[in-house]
Amino acid sequence: MIYTIIAIAVLIILLYLIITNQEVFGAEPTGKRLERMQKSQHYKNNQFQNLSYTPSLAEGHTMSEVLYDFFFKKKDPYLKPHKIVPAIHTDLKNIPKDQDVFVWLGHSSYYMQTDGISFLVDPVLSLYGSPFKFFNKAFAGADIFKPEDMPDLDYLIITHDHYDHLDYPTIKAIKNRVETVILPLGVGAHLEKWGYEEHQIIEEEWGGEAVLKNNIKIIYTPARHFSGRKFKRNGTLWTSYVLETPTKKMFLGGDSGYDTHFKMIGEKYGPFDYAIIENGQYNQAWKYIHALPEDVIQASIDVNAKNIIPVHSSKFALALHPWNEPLKKITSLGKDKNLNILTPMIGEPVDLNKTDHLFGDWWEDNN
Predict the structure, then answer these.
(1) 140-175, pLDDT tens digit by residue?
(2) CA dihedral over 35, 41, 46, 50, signed as positive or negative
(3) Structural domain range at position 112
(4) Which parts of the sequence belong to the Metallo-beta-lactamase domain (predicted)?
(5) What does pTM read for this prediction?
């Protein structure tokens, strides 16, 4: 009997090693990169820390409850859309270089041009926002953009290393079109494993900044979240960004629960012409790491944004709310607060130089 138990244990260990050694899982930081991490004031007990105490689950919730809800509780009938998600397949390669534009690619992926420079943020352009091709499949229609649709890129920006933000197939496929990668401390280890060169990578922690081409500056600012591609959490940093160009200021929020850092960022770097903030895949149980819609509104007020573009919805079902609830709630709450909430369809260009924007409620007739 004991030999059978040992044999099963060995098989489980071997299976784990075989799976987790696949390239999709990336690499652990080592050498000089790890030394930099260990010197960071935000790195303690072998992991990065949020500015505020951030439990995985909010008070009154347990992991067993969360797992039960996910696997056994009756799902909302509109967890996923019943029709194809409407989208516009804009030809990104033919957008004039002097046009300042934002194009949402679904979930938290977006393409931007401003001041003659191109940016691609958190691109997940494969069919699955996970390491396995049987989980977290993109909604039909929301998958309209593919890696081959991407133009040559001045900058690839990554906010953290979760699979729905750092997509191995996409990152590999666009490698030869990327000039420079901007990412938080520790995440560079993944990209170097996937073939990117050290000289291509800008890798900083909160408070760090870099001067880019055309007098553009990017600043690493806090977020309230976590990281990890295997079982170890918080081995790399997560971040938001402030993008300052000669003509505009933008806040790129990444994934974050609500906290005082939004007010701090607004006071130090605001006001912002645009704030791109996550709004979706939330739940009361994990509100500290994914903001609820009412928190997104307060965060937008805190950073002092003239225009808010909500992302992190409409492509994957990573929470239990109806697929279009985030957009319904944020637009309703935004009207109550007289905020400019911009809700383009996937692929619908947003002219960043316009002062007035008008988008339809495209999600309403697409349950």
Answers:
(1) 999 999 999 999 999 999 999 999 999 999 999 999
(2) negative
(3) 6-351
(4) 119-312
(5) 0.94
